[in-house]
Design a protein that fits this description.
Mean pLDDT: 85
Radius of gyration: 22 Å
Low-confidence stretches: 90-95
Order of helices and strands: HHHHHHHEEEEEEEEEEEEE
Number of strands: 13
CATH architecture of the largest domain: Sandwich
Distance between the termini: 59 Å
Number of domains: 2
Largest sheet: 6 strands, mixed
Length: 300
């Protein structure tokens, strides 16, 4: 097995890994169909073709049996392709969004083109138990970094990934840069200079069953020297606990205020002052967060 195929079997996506495995085997679709038939499994060439191009996926019980046998025919480790399937795709033209949630595209409008063609976890298949943002704004070095910790729980079976979106508001500066991830593997990463947006796919070590938990930590670097007087987190779904910790290097701001919004834009609610410590740090802890935006604004 070549290095590229081994990597694809770890990261996916499913159809790319299957296509690479078929190419590496040197077998035609008809030969694959015949080998499967010899072992008592009936699957058409069209079905295999659709699987390898992403037009459809094996989801029914008999299709998953065929996929497991196909792994054997292709000489792949057991369940290596099955593990890349993730949760079942939602049916219908426009999958419904759970009540009381906001769409990703409304909260991250600049990320829409980057999300196109990138399979994301369907709405409602992950519960957010907590989100923690640690943001370092160093005016001495000009460095701006954000480290995020997500605690997630699967609300469905075979959930295997999560996609994050980040944007830079100021049109004079480039998109953020992903600089590290822990407790997950990096899948596809897309950035666009025109929209100043970043989309990153994180793959779990194994598909989660309903009720199972996982943790992801990742870090992004915001543009150096970017004038920064606020930060905010967007919530498409309820979150059990949100914490943001801010550390300022250099001259500290004179005033910090927390604000909430029901969406990306709109009137600010729950505006309150935050205390800045002698070490240039402050923290905001918000339990039972509803969909919308929570931000912190500061001024000298």
């Amino acid at each position: 097995m070549n290095r590229e195929l081994r990597q694809l079997l770890r990261t996916g996506p499913f159809e790319v890994a299957l296509d690479a495995a078929i190419e590496a085997s040197g077998l035609t679709l008809e030969r694959l169909r015949s080998r499967l038939a010899d072992s008592g499994v009936t699957v058409s060439r069209t079905a295999i073709s659709y699987w390898r191009t992403g037009r459809s996926r094996p989801e029914r019980a008999e299709s998953l049996v065929a996929l497991s046998r196909l792994e054997q025919v292709l000489g792949l480790p057991s369940a290596s392709l099955v593990a890349l399937l993730g949760g079942r795709r939602p049916r219908g033209r426009t999958p419904g969004r759970p009540p009381g949630t906001l769409s990703r595209r409304s909260l991250w409008p600049s990320c829409g083109s980057l999300l196109a063609g990138l399979e994301t976890t369907p709405e409602g298949e992950l519960d957010f138990l907590s989100i923690t943002d640690s943001i370092n704004v160093n005016e001495n070095t000009g460095e701006r970094r954000q480290r995020t910790r997500l605690v997630l729980r699967a609300a469905a079976d075979r959930v295997d990934r999560y996609v994050v979106c980040h944007e830079v508001d100021d049109p004079a500066y480039p998109a953020p840069e992903l600089v590290g991830v822990a407790y997950a593997r990096v899948g596809r990463v897309r950035a666009d200079a025109a929209s100043r947006a970043l989309v990153a796919e994180f793959l779990f070590d194994r598909p989660l069953g309903r009720g199972e938990h996982t943790v992801i930590e990742y870090e992004v670097r915001l543009p150096d020297r970017q004038p920064l007087d606020h930060c905010y987190r967007r919530f498409p779904r309820p979150v059990g606990l949100y914490t943001v910790m801010l550390r300022f290097g250099g001259p500290p701001p004179g005033r910090l205020r927390r604000y909430d919004r029901p969406g990306l834009h709109g009137p600010e609610k729950h505006v309150e002052d935050l205390w800045l410590g002698a070490a240039g740090t402050t923290a905001l802890v918000a339990p039972s967060v509803r969909p919308g935006t929570i931000g912190v604004r500061w001024e000298s």
